[in-house]
Each structure stands twice: as C-alpha cells, then as structure tokens.
C-alpha cells in the first residue's frame, strides 16, 4: 500500500490497533460465539492438542480431576479457548479470573474455598499475581489445602482449610516471569506457537461460516497473510473486510476486496500497521537504519518507550525487519526493501567501490613502503 515518506505519526494515544493481539469488548463478544467447543473443532496447535487430549482422556478414565495445566504464548493464540475446552471435555464448570485481580492471599482463599469438586479454575496472566497469593497457591495445587491466617502478631493462628480436587489452568504471555516453584507444580505445560498461513485460512473459513460471510479461497489467503500468525487478529480483520464488502461491494470477500479493505484500514501486505511502519520509517529515514537507542526511537515516533518495545518491536523482530543489538536497534535489508528505500552506502563500502574503479587499484588501500 502507499506510504507517505514524510509521515511518521503512529496511532494516537488510546487508538485501538486493528492488528493488536489484545482483546477488546467487541472481540470478546465475537470470540464467545466463534470459540470451538471441543478439541476436535480447535484449529492449529496440533502437538498441544494431541498431548492435551491424552491428559484429559486419562483423567476421565481415572474419574479424577485433570492435572494442572500451564499454557504460555503470545496473546490471541487460543489460551482462553483451550481452558474452556478443558472444562467442557471434563464436563466440569469453569471459574475465570486473572492474576492482576488477585492482590491479596485472602482474595485467592475466597475463590479456592468456593470451588466445586473437579471444577476448572482459569487464571489468566498468572505471572502478575501477588507474591502472597502465589505462595498460597503452592499448597493449594499440591495438597488441595490452604492455611487461613486468623488474627495478627503473636496471637495469629493458621486454620487449615481442605479444598476439593480441582484443575488449575494458568495462562501467561511471559512464562519466564513465573517462579520455578510455581511452574514445577503444573502437571502439563504447553507453549502456543504462532499459526501458519494455511491454519489461519482454515480459521477464517470457519469463522466466515459462523458469521454468515461469503468468502472465496483467495480472499481468505489475503486476510491470513496479514494476520500476523494470530487467530484473534484474523477474525478481527475478517469482520472489518466483511464491513467493507457489504458497503462497497456485493458482500462477497475476494482477494481484491480484502486488499482494498485492508488498505483503508492501513494494514499492509505483511500485516504492519501505522505504528509498525512509523517505527521503521523513523529508523530508516531519520537514523539511517541505526543503530539507535530505544528511547531515542520512541521519541522520534511520539510514543512511550514501553509501547515501542512491547507493542511494535516483537512483530518487527519476528518478521526479520528489525534487530536488537548491544548498540541499539538496527534495520535489516528486508526493512529497506519493504518500505521501498535504498540503504545508504557505508564508508567502508564506499572505499571499496572507489578502489575498484581506480586504475591500478587493488581494492586493498595503500601499502606502506619497507
């Protein structure tokens, strides 16, 4: 799509990114309708599905609660969906909460004490749970028991509280922040990988059927190629292309319609949006491709340092458009090619070219006499 070389402005503060992997209210509502109900319907993550199927079948055969499960991976890959599938496969209710919501051990004790036998407790962003609650969780996961402290000071008393057998499903986008004692208490750990284009095409076709949207094979390919390997983004792009097709065309999503629609929403053929291209444009045009410090780069695009580092950089690095080095951020040759720019000639390359074009030049520079 066209790119104005004089424009570096990223999305304004508070503007939702169409290719952001986080879920807003609309995404949550649509995902609830599109979520598969069992492992057979779940698309992608073949190895995780196979391993998890064995864990759940064995638990059902024993008539016991399934082992605790830890799911790690980037946002939008299906961790919440898998947690609901685990509950459905075990024919058990599910309780959903998140790490940031549990700031005190008492918060966790209240949740654990109200669980039913075999219930699934889904704890999203488990790495953000407070340390006191985390330490209480150790005993709950291992011994199905928590000690509730009554009173303060020397007169405080620990009252043991027995818990029913339950299954904890923890989800995290940053598995490295989990302390080893917590990580080791999960009986099954799975890492969710980014989706291949063919898998995303299958996701798009399935979602299109459920949303009653007409799309051909090439239209699905076009959307899948811009979805950054993430089903949540694929479904969001599908809805926006559907809107365009209904207003500007006959309602059928073809490759041409998908391409035109995503050009309107400023999502290019590799899935980059204005923020991503703003970072690349600043790095290439203002700093000659780098290296440049992260803080300087963030100022150049008018964003916070954390936004550039945590929102834009991961995808740019994964796409091979940007590299992190000890000296700063550096653009790769693919970044220059993607924006249609020619990389500058380095002094060393310029010297080599001059030597090659000088009569009698050896390309090795002058040689000192003996």
Automatic annotation (TrEMBL):
Q: Kindly list the positions annotated as binding Mg(2+).
A: 80
Q: What class of enzyme is it?
A: hydrolase
Keywords (alphabetical) are: ATP-binding, Cytoplasm, DNA damage, DNA recombination, DNA repair, DNA-binding, Helicase, Hydrolase, Nucleotide-binding
The region called Head domain (RuvB-H) is annotated at 269-370
| UniProt similarity note | Belongs to the RuvB family.
What domain notes does the record hold?
Answer: Has 3 domains, the large (RuvB-L) and small ATPase (RuvB-S) domains and the C-terminal head (RuvB-H) domain. The head domain binds DNA, while the ATPase domains jointly bind ATP, ADP or are empty depending on the state of the subunit in the translocation cycle. During a single DNA translocation step the structure of each domain remains the same, but their relative positions change.
Q: What is this protein called?
A: Holliday junction branch migration complex subunit RuvB
Q: Identify the species of origin.
A: Streptomyces gossypii
